Amino acid sequence: MKIALVTPAPPRSRVGNRATAARWSRLLRAAGYQVDVLEQWGADDRSYDLMIALHAWRSASSIAAFAQRFPERALIVVLTGTDIYRFQHTHPEVTRASLDHASALIGLHDHVERDIPATYHAILHTVHQSALPLPKGHLGPSTQEVTMCVVGHLREEKDSLRAAEAARLLPADSRIQIIQAGRAHTPDWALAAQAQMQDNTRYRWLGEVTQTAIRRLYARSHAMVISSVMEGGANVVSEACVAGLPVIASDISGNTGLLGQDYPGLFPVGDSAALAALMARFESDLAFRAALTERCRVLAPRHAPKAEQAALLAVIQGLNL
User: Which of 23, 185, 200, 202 is 20 to 30 A from residue 37's alpha carbon, by CA?
Assistant: First the structure.
């Protein structure tokens, strides 16, 4: 079977959609499928037996073209965070048209069903993203400070500087340091991060770094902070769980759909004081730290590559192609 895997992110991009496409192409090829990763597909392009399109809105033209040319062929649409929490509301006609063309929908966390119309629930499937364990030999966390990493491109959806702002509210004797990795989405975000570093001694921004450098950051961190306003199921959660790294996260569907509604390390979106309180508790309360670590450890097996591959293949095989 020949599969077109469409992602709007360019080949050398480090955004989540491109990483997902690259990883899925490897998993599908290992299962015996022929896979081409494309930025877009047009009606005059190569024929495929199946299209998997990441992003209902950004890949809408490819989805519509494939559905029109091959109405009898299967088409899987993968729902991203901005699809679910932005574009289905701001661009409903285009986004819903993509969903209507879909033979199956894939969500990346367990609570997607809460946030899309009931008419699509019957074709919705969940695939948890995977990550590889950290290689042996990395330096572990420092005993001199408590490092909390923030990983992801700096942009509005991520509320990217929330951890930095929360760190300002910590007690003077706190040993917490925030280290952030990710490309600034706009020049204004870069200026804001640089301004933080000038007068916030607890904050350091690394900019965009390699995946190897990010894995080193995980190894030397005590916890990860995810402060997003919207998430479709962040792969950094998978990476943290597999790395044995406890998470402190905003209380949004994209996070609770991975960590659990009763996860003890949640804080209200945009609430710097609540985040600072959790960070301080993590530093001082070893039982709380151990509880978060154990919750993430228990979740790690479902983020193994074989689990992701099995879930993805189950969706494809369920289409009876």
Answer: 185
